[in-house]
Amino acid sequence: MDSRLPAHLEASAIIRLAEAAGGFATVLAKGERDAGTILVVTLCHGRGGVLHERMPQLDGSRKFIIAKRENTENPTEFSEYLARRRAQDPDTWLIEVDIADPERFVAQLDELR
Predict the structure, then answer these.
(1) 60, 8, 97, 73: CA torsion to nearest 10
(2) Which of 9, 37, 56, 100 has the most Cβ atoms closer than 10 angstroms to its Cβ?
(3) Boundaries of every domain in the chain
(4) pTM
(5) Residue spans of alpha helices (H) in the chain
(6) Which parts of the chain have pLDDT scores under 50?
(7) What is the pLDDT of residues 16-45, one digit of tens each?
(8) Which residues pair with 97 in a beta bridge?
(9) How far does CA 60 lie from the centroid of its chain?
């Protein structure tokens, strides 16, 4: 039996965790309700977008890793990349989190599992 939390519940937990930490989170795109992949974009004060994606690790765990960083000299590239990812897999959830300490927030996400 799969112990994975349904995607819509995990998305809600991510939003609540961000709000509890004094940040703001929103769902930019909803994916498949139960089994969709979740991508998290973290920002700090609206800048420095970093895309995190949960990937399997050698020990069997699934941790968020950095999949893409926003290029400050070409910020549209980041948005275009996100759009391509959504087009490749419409079941993907895209959640944006603006928080003071993005690295700590992502570490907390890994602890939730």
Answers:
(1) 80
(2) 37
(3) 7-112
(4) 0.91
(5) 7-20, 75-88, 102-112
(6) 1
(7) 999 999 999 999 999 999 989 999 999 999
(8) 25, 42
(9) 20
What per-residue confidence (pLDDT) applies to 34? 94
The count of other CB atoms within 10 Å of the CB of residue 41 is 22
Residue 36 and residue 91 in contact, taking contact as beta carbons nearer than 8 Å: yes
Question: Are the C-beta atoms of residues 18 and 47 closer than 8 Å to each other?
Answer: no
- Find out whether 96 and 46 touch, Cβ atoms under 8 Å: no
Q: Contact 102/42 with Cβ under 8 angstroms?
A: yes
Cα three-residue angle 78-101-30, rounded to 5 degrees: 50
Which listed CATH number (3.40.50.10170, 3.40.1530.20, 3.40.50.620, 3.30.450.20) goes with 7-112? 3.40.1530.20
pLDDT at 2: 54
**Predicted local distance difference test score (pLDDT) of residue 102:** 97
Considering the chain, what is the average pLDDT of its residues? 92
Contact yes or no for 27/9 (Cβ under 8 A): no
